[in-house]
Each structure stands twice: as structure tokens, then as C-alpha cells.
Specification:
Structural class: alpha/beta
Number of helices: 25
Strand content: 5-15%
Distance between the termini: 76 Å
Shape: elongated
Number of strands: 16
Radius of gyration: 44 Å
Oligomer: single chain
Strand order of the largest sheet: 8-9-11-12-13-14-15-16
Length: 643
């Protein structure tokens, strides 16, 4: 509970105490006319009556001053119930002492005095207060017998005292039960209020991060839009998504992912102003509402500050995680006039930021709507692509530099979209990874490749096939088991299958990656590192990886031989791989100069348009049957056949 809440609670309690004091003061005020009437009927002399009135007024003024100054809050019981009861009993006994006749009428006010403790005293405290009244009256009787014996009728006074001794305990018992019932009711109310507060918080706040949830944010956004319309102000909406967060859940588990989300929520909150509202919509999606900004460039500064908050590494369970985020920004009223439109457009801008390379922000523009609609349509169609037999596999030959022999092929998926035609992987694979569809597509590809290998073997063609594994599939716990089942059911030889994995995939958790790769190698499957040089492999780990091949990424081949740095890198990679007893494959070889340089550097195999692009199965078969001997006479003849 923060300081402001504590102050508010203390003030409300003090207000309740003041109300109780006013009730007691009201009881005193009601007694004053009774006291005056007692004087006029001859029950009490004038001077004692005036002194009693002064005592009552003085006592109430004193307690009022104590409550108003707050001094009472230093007492063990800030309500000062016992002091008020004892003072009232003392004043009552003073009045009883001066009642010359009908002291029983004055003693009736004992019940009023004891009621001061209603809802506050326990049964035991009520009995104690009753005992104080009886003791006080006994003292009054003895003092009267000594100082004013003519006014005392001992048998009558004894009768009155005994009557009080019988009545007050009964009153104390009833008062105690009422207090106990009141305490139970108060506890029930507190528990009910606590439960209601908890339910309200659960309904309006995210249980994991403690931030406002979608429902509360939508309500706040609608209210903010109404205020902005009324006062003709602008507001901005930020839509934030953590880049590649799914990989954390898949590789490290959801508990680690949950702690990352908590840390992200804290970092975003610290990075923005206290007046800005940060909420979690669900998953790894966060939103920020900025109601007061001067100019649009200020929004870019806010986005940069949020992205900067992701700069320091995240440390969770001994894991050091480097995370980034993509942010979409839209403004009211330029980009939308209602909450739903603003959220949708900020979401569209966020996806545009991801497409532009992630770890950046993007402002919404109207033309992004078309791109978003296309993306949604692609996502919906991709869910049914396997069922509709729209996914195809093309095969790109891998050629040996030395003798021109076809050493194998790489399987590359294509999507035969019913309206858009043949789509290349860069158009739909990222979408499949984000939606999780890449895993079933990956297993389908492995099964289809194994089936083709068996069919080709029956036709007398022995050919190994390389298949790219996605990060999600590689980190699937059942990968080895599923692959073994595919090999067993299709009858394909494991040696004919080569799995290509990237540096980034294995370096997320190198020890686990080594264990998985060793299990795959034990099955007879060959392994290669794809796009080598673009990741961050440690040479120490590279020695441990049971790898058969390294594939030099096309980004290093593209500018050969004109780029000296790229030439040096390819030469170093080839030398490194050979020292580790690995075969080297160069990707993206497209012309004679690239071919000559890589051959001279000792590269073992190549693939690229210099020989053939990825081919449908039928064209691959024709290439193997018709062009099988084209490279037998060496690389120069290969140029004439394939160039």
C-alpha cells in the first residue's frame, strides 16, 4: 500500500471516530434538558445542576479538541472508548450524589453510558464497565452516609444497588453479543470487499504483469478519445510486439517467457511518463496510450526511448537474453476516429516495422491497410495449403567442383497459391513461423522428401536430399522421434537425408543442440550448417558440432571475385571446414568468375543459377537423365553446358 492510500485510509478512520464522538456528544446534549427538568421538579439543587452542565460541556469540548488535533491517534485505542466511558461514569456518579430524591432515575442513565461502548467493547469489557458503575455507586452511597446521612435511606439504596447488579450484567451480556456480531459482520464485509477488489482487479488487470488488460485499456482509450474530441486534442497509440518471442517459449519454456514479459512490462513503464497508460493486451503484445504530446516527432522520441529500454540484456534463470521490439504508432484523429480503428492501424504499423527488419518503430500510413489485408488473406489461406495440396517441393542440384558430378539436391518449398501463383519462401515462410504452421509444414516436407528418395531409388537414382529445418522444428522435443517414425514408415535410408540448420538456431542453446545433433547423427542422418558466417558461432562449439558440411552463405559469394573481403572470408571458411574434416558447399554461384575463384580456393561443391535454379521434380528428373554427364569433362565444359 503506497503513502497516498495509507493517508486516505487514516483520514477515513478518523472521520468515523469523529462521527462516534458526535453520537456521544448528542447523548450528553439530550441529558441537559433532563437535568434542567430535574432541577425544576426539585430533584437536584441549582448549583450542582450548573456544575454538572459545565462538566458535561467541558468533557465534550476536551474530547472534541483531542479528536480534531489527531492526538487520539497516538493512543492504543484511537477511538478513546474507555476514557469516554470512565469520564461519563464519573459525571453520572457526581449527579447521582446530588440527587436528593429519586436517585434511581439518575441511575437509569447508566445504560446510556454503557452504550458508549456499543460495537466496540467485548463482553468482558462490558462486564468490566458494569462493575465500574456498581463500584462507583457503592462509593457514592458510602460518601452520602458520611457527608449527607439525612438524604440516605440505606435499605432503598441497597435495593437500587442490587437491582443494578442484576440489570447491568444482562445489559453487558447483550451488548457484548451485539459487539461480537458486529465484529463478525465487519470481518465478513472486509473479506467481501477484498474479494470484490480482487475480482475487479482480475477483470481489469493482467494477472502476470499487473498492467491494465485489454478491457480496461479499451475503456480508457474510448474515454481518452471522447476527451480529445471534446477539447480538440490529439492522442497517440503505440502497439508493441516483442521480436521472436515465440522462440523463447519454444526453447526455454513458458515460465522463462512469463518472467521476460514481466520484465518487459516494467521496462516499458519506466521508460514512459507516469501519465501515459501502459497495458498488456495478451501474449507478447503491449500498448501505450499517450494523451498529451506536442508534435509528431516527439512520438518518435518516445518510441526510441522504449526501444532503448530493451538494450540491456534480460537475465532470467541464469540465461542472458538479447531482446528487441517492433512498435507501430498511430494518432487520433488522423489515423482513426474510434478505438477499434486505432488499435487495428497501430497493429498494422507494428507488422510493417517487423517487415522492415524489427527493432524499430513505424508510423501508420493508409497504404499499409492493403498490405495488412493481403497478409491476413495469406495467413488464412496458408492454414489450408497443406490440406489442399498447394505446397510443392522444388529441388536445386549440388554440383561437385572437381568432376562435375551431381552430389545431391536441396529441397526448397514453394506455395502454389490459387490466385497469386507460385510463391517463393520469403513470401510465406516468415508468416508460417509466426503462426506456428512451419512445424507441420516441416514434417510434411520431411515425409514427402523421404517418399521421393525411395521412389527415385526404385528408378535407379541414388540421390541425397538436404532439407532446411526451421528453428521451431529443431527445438521441438519430439523432433528425433518424429523423424525416426518418418524414416521407418517410408523406408527411406537415413544416409540419404541431410538436415540443414543455421548457426543462430544452435547457438541459442549449444549444449542441447549438440545432444540433438548427436541423436540425429546416430540415426545416420547427415547434418550441415546453413548460411555459415552470418551467425555467431563459437569455434569452440563448432568443433563439438557433429557436422558433415558447411554452406557458405550467398551474401559472401554475391560480389566475388571483386570484393576482397568476401574472397578472404570464403577462403578462410573453406580452410576452416577442411581442417575440421567437413565438406564445403557454396550457395548462390551465378557466373564463371565466382565458379573459378571458389574452385581455386578448394571449395568442394556449389549450387546456384550457374548450373540450375530450384526445379520441380519432373524437370529435375529430366536434368539428371539428360545432363548427367555434362560435367564429366571438367569445369570448363560445365560452363558451356550450364551457362
Amino acid at each position: 500500500m503506497d503513502t497516498g492510500v495509507r493517508i486516505e485510509t487514516a483520514a477515513s478512520k478518523q472521520l468515523v471516530r469523529m462521527r462516534r464522538f458526535y453520537l456521544a456528544a448528542g447523548a450528553y446534549a439530550a441529558c441537559l434538558p433532563v437535568l434542567i427538568a430535574a432541577h425544576y421538579v426539585g430533584l437536584v439543587p441549582l448549583a450542582p445542576m450548573l456544575r454538572l452542565a459545565i462538566l458535561m460541556v467541558g468533557a465534550n469540548l476536551a474530547f472534541f479538541a483531542i479528536f480534531r488535533s489527531g492526538v487520539n491517534q497516538r493512543a492504543p485505542d484511537p477511538s478513546l472508548t474507555w476514557p469516554q466511558v470512565l469520564v461519563a461514569i464519573a459525571i453520572l456518579m457526581y449527579g447521582v450524589y446530588y440527587f436528593d430524591r429519586e436517585r434511581g432515575l439518575a441511575l437509569m442513565l447508566c445504560l446510556v453510558v454503557l452504550s458508549f461502548g456499543a460495537f466496540r467493547f467485548s463482553t468482558r469489557e462490558f462486564f468490566t464497565a458494569a462493575g465500574v458503575v456498581l463500584a462507583g455507586y457503592l462509593v457514592v452511597i458510602n460518601v452520602l452516609m458520611w457527608a449527607r446521612p439525612t438524604t440516605v435511606n440505606v435499605p432503598i439504596e441497597a435495593y437500587r444497588w442490587l437491582t443494578l447488579a442484576l440489570v447491568l450484567p444482562c445489559f453487558a451480556m447483550v451488548g457484548g453479543r451485539i459487539s461480537e456480531l458486529r465484529r463478525r459482520l465487519r470481518r465478513s464485509n472486509e473479506e467481501l470487499n477484498s474479494a470484490l477488489r480482487m475480482i475487479q482487479k482480475m477483470a481489469t488487470h493482467d494477472a502476470l504483469t499487473g498492467l491494465p488488460n485489454r478491457a480496461l485499456f479499451n475503456e480508457a482509450l474510448v474515454h481518452a478519445i471522447g476527451q480529445a474530441q471534446r477539447h480538440r486534442r490529439s492522442l497517440a497509440l503505440f502497439f508493441l510486439d516483442i521480436d521472436r518471442f515465440k522462440n523463447i517459449n519454444d526453447t526455454l519454456g513458458h515460465p522463462v517467457g512469463d518472467r521476460v514479459l514481466q520484465e518487459v512490462g516494467q521496462r516499458i513503464t519506466v521508460a514512459v511518463r507516469a501519465s501515459d497508460m501502459v497495458a498488456r493486451l495478451g501474449g507478447d503484445e503491449f500498448v501505450l496510450l499517450v494523451e498529451d504530446f506536442a508534435e509528431t516527432p516527439d512520438l518518435g522520441d518516445i518510441a526510441a526511448k522504449i526501444l532503448g529500454a530493451f538494450g540491456p540484456s534480460f537475465h532470467v534463470d541464469g540465461q542472458e537474453l538479447a531482446l528487441s521490439a517492433s512498435i507501430g504508432i498511430c494518432t487520433f484523429p488522423d489515423d482513426g476516429s474510434d478505438a477499434q480503428t486505432l488499435l487495428s492501424n497501430a497493429d498494422i504499423a507494428m507488422y510493417r516495422a517487423k517487415e522492415q527488419g524489427r527493432n524499430r518503430h513505424c508510423f501508420y500510413a493508409a497504404e499499409l491497410n492493403k498490405l495488412s489485408q493481403e497478409r491476413l488473406a495469406l495467413e488464412a489461406a496458408l492454414k489450408h495449403a497443406l490440406q489442399r495440396d498447394e505446397i510443392e517441393i522444388h529441388y536445386q542440384p549440388k554440383i561437385e567442383f572437381g568432376g562435375g558430378r551431381v552430389t545431391g539436391v536441396e529441397a526448397l518449398i514453394r506455395w502454389r497459391h490459387p490466385h497469386l501463383g507460385l510463391l517463393l519462401p520469403d513470401r510465406f515462410v516468415p508468416l508460417a513461423e509466426e503462426t506456428g504452421l512451419i512445424v507441420p509444414i516441416g514434417y510434411w516436407t520431411l515425409r514427402r522428401v523421404c517418399e521421393r528418395v525411395c521412389k527415385w531409388k526404385e528408378q535407379g537414382i541414388s540421390l541425397s536430399v538436404a532439407v532446411n529445418l526451421s528453428a521451431s522444428q529443431f527445438h521441438q522435443p519430439e523432433l528425433v522421434k518424429e523423424l525416426a517414425a518418418i524414416l521407418w514408415s517410408t523406408g527411406a535410408p537415413a544416409q540419404a537425408l541431410e538436415l540443414e540448420i543455421t548457426e543462430t538456431m544452435v547457438m541459442k542453446d549449444p549444449d542441447r543442440a549438440v545432444a540433438v545433433m548427436e541423436q540425429l547423427r546416430a540415426m545416420g542422418v547427415r547434418l550441415s550448417i546453413d548460411d555459415f558466417g552470418t551467425g555467431h558461432s563459437s569455434l569452440g562449439y563448432l568443433k563439438r558440432f557433429p557436422i558433415d558440411r558447411l554452406k557458405v552463405d550467398r551474401s559472401f559469394v554475391r560480389e566475388l571475385p571483386h570484393n576482397g573481403d568476401d574472397a578472404a572470408i570464403t577462403g578462410a571458411v573453406i580452410a576452416l571446414a577442411h581442417s575440421l574434416k567437413m565438406t564445403v558447399v557454396a550457395e548462390g554461384v551465378e557466373d564463371q568468375q565466382q565458379f573459378d575463384l571458389l574452385r581455386d580456393q578448394g571449395c568442394d561443391e556449389f549450387q546456384g543459377y550457374y548450373c540450375r535454379p530450384p526445379l520441380p521434380e519432373a524437370e529435375l528428373m529430366r536434368f539428371l537423365n539428360e545432363e548427367r554427364g555434362l560435367f564429366a569433362r571438367g569445369a570448363r565444359k560445365a560452363e558451356r553446358a550450364c551457362g
